[in-house]
Design brief:
about 150 residues; mainly beta; six-stranded antiparallel β-sheet; 1 helix; about 45% strand
Length: about 150
Amino acid sequence: MRSSYLVRATLLALGFAAGCGGSLQISDAPMSGKIGGVPWSFGSAESIAFLSSSDQFFVEAYAEVVAPCTGAGNGLSSNRMILNVPRSTGDYLLGSGLNETFFVQSTGFNYIATNGRIVVNQVTDTMLSGAGHFIFDADNDVNGQFQAQICPP
């Protein structure tokens, strides 16, 4: 009986260890993966000024290339990523205070990823560059590099 508890405790500890720490590898390729079970590849991204905060940019990432800061992204009917990008360079783990969203256009569903990592490499007045690996489940998982135009208010 005691050995059964010891085995369970060991398995539980290993499970917590596997979920904590460790690094999520980020691809050097442009961001791609699946959104809503459908293949998705990064085309362009732009910040939405009125939804951004003092510590994070609100960024929409599209499969299509659109003219930034023109509202052209509003007319798209494809899946997209909604990214919360810290305004300071650094390497951030996703969690309750930082998450990324998979938006599935056909259903209108948002899948919130709290598992993953985002790296902000550079932020200027007009552009930001970074990388990330965001995971909700097997049908919503993207990984790779991105750039976003920072749109004025």
